[in-house]
Amino acid sequence: MKVATKGLLIVFTLAVASLGLKGKVEKPMSQSKYNHRIIQGIRGALTDQNFVILAQTDPLTVTAYKDGCMLSIGPSQTEGGGDSAFRATYGQLGVISFWYLGKLYGSLPSAEGLVNRYLERLKFAFGGSPQLHPIYHVIRSPYCDPSQVESLELDSNLRLDRL
Predict the structure, then answer these.
(1) Please, which domain of life does this record's source organism belong to (predicted)?
(2) What is the mean pLDDT of the chain?
(3) What is the pLDDT of residues 124-160, one digit of tens each?
(4) Cα separations (Å) of 17 from 30, 35, 52, 81, 117?
(5) Span 97-125, mean pLDDT?
(6) Could you give the angle at the alpha carbon of 75 between the alpha carbons of 69 and 81, nearest 5°?
(7) Looking at 55-132, which runs of residues are DSSP E strands?
């Protein structure tokens, strides 16, 4: 029963978005509008964990180093548009994964990201305070333990009315 209800909610969400709400909420809900703040959050999370921030070669990626562990992290598009450039630039550093809502994924969690984005757009359209749930691309050098990424708590406090 829960699966059927979730499926109906997804269909309803997509139908409403395609009927015109998308135009009303697309601009305020655009992640690119908040990328500067997201990058600041990544930098803060890394320095809080005693990583040394390296010179930035890409405005949407932060690379940092600590105890043999090198991480390159940046906001990813839900649709995956910029990820091929990220892989080409940073892929030689190590394993690529994606951080989304508290979990590391081996591939881009596009479906879950799109559903959540449309649900947040509906919340915004009906006067609620939506949250931005960015998907982060993460490259870890071989000496990085996944727990080092998890300790960054990248998902904290991304309510749009606070950004």
Answers:
(1) Bacteria
(2) 75
(3) 778 777 777 788 888 888 888 888 888 887 776 454 4
(4) 14, 23, 42, 21, 11
(5) 80
(6) 120
(7) 62-66, 69-76, 95-100, 103-105
Closest CA to 134 of 161, 156, 151, 106: 156
| Domain residue limits, the chain | 31-109+128-162
Residues 6+ apart with CB under 8 A from 142: 94, 95
Q: Which residue has the tokens 């930035």?
A: 56
Of 108, 89, 110, 82, the closest CA to residue 97 belongs to 108
Q: In this structure, are residues 133 and 117 in contact, taking their beta carbons and an 8 Å threshold? A: yes
Q: Name the strands in the sheet holding 103-105, side by side, starting at the edge strand that comes first in the sequence.
A: 52-53, 62-66, 69-76, 135-140, 95-100, 103-105
| Alpha carbon distances (Å) from 151 to 34, 142, 145, 147 | 22, 17, 10, 6
Rounded to whole angstroms, the Cα distance separating 27 from 140 reads 33
